[in-house]
Amino acid sequence: MSESPAPTGVRPVRAIRAVLIGILLTVGLLAGISAAAVPATAAVPSGVALGAYVGSDSVSDLSAVERSLGARVAIASSFRGWGDLFPDSAQQAQAAAGHSLLVAWDLGATRATRFASFYRHRHDAYLAREAAVARQFGSTFYVRPWAEMNADWVAFQPTRAGERPAGGTYAQFVRAWRYVVAFFRSHGAGNVRWVFNPTTDTYAETTPVARIWPGARYVDVLGLDGYNWGNGAMLRWRSFADIYRTQYARLTALAPRLPVWICEFGSKAAGEDDGAAIDPHHSTGAWYAGMFAWLAKARAVRALVMFDVRKERDWRVQASAATLRLMQSAARAAVRTV
Prior knowledge:
Blueprint: H1 10-30, E1 49-53, H2 59-69, E2 75-80, H3 89-96, E3 100-105, H4 115-119, H5 124-137, E4 141-145, E5 158-159, E6 168-169, H6 170-186, E7 192-196, E8 221-228, H7 240-254, E9 260-267, H8 284-295, E10 301-307, H9 321-333
Helix pairs in contact: 8-9
């Protein structure tokens, strides 16, 4: 619809005023702060522990995040690769500082570490060394082998045909998982708790978790990783519930009595210029508020582990004032141990 011409001098004033109002609104949204949409406080549901990966295994770095939250972090998350032995000295320091350990264990990304190679005893020497280190550590700790195994971007994704370079078929994955768990138990490392940890992704190219479920006898915790990547090429802003609800339902149907840990989560900051579009129509604070609302209904969740790192996006809770405020209030209500 065309507009009637404005009197001389009126349109420029209105245009400037509109631009200023637009800038102010955008700044408020980009900061993730909306007084009407974002509550001032939040609470982790009763019995849920808070954890974090902070970009290193340094106790001082984790302590810095604790200071920003004004509360203790129960779980120290870390990553280890093929050939590593753990808990190593850095992780033992985390444990000595009062944190439970959660370790993502990459079991190899080459043809030499395909699933069948495990139950064909080709890696028993390495597994025996790792089991001995775990047994000597003594305390309970949590391991997520082949983390995000259902994803189509990992070399060890189990598929129907088993074509991935470090993977195999659905049945071969199940057999390899059971073999590793049974190996540790038979070698006295019963203090290891096993986390079956797919991503939340359920699009056509991902592996259905029911096809690779090793059974509740071989799993202690159900884990999930999922992120809001924001608007961009082939991406859209997604709420926490939209990201998590489908895979959560599928996992809990497989093992209704097992606890669920959110092992990695984060949201792109709405105002972050990271190659993806700045998003003035969404609020990071509102995203976190929605997360806590969903968690209040997800009764199987027992841990919430922040991926508190600037990586592909700025996933840190400190990236938004509203987000940090919510996490501070939630952290104070969270339990300290798992």
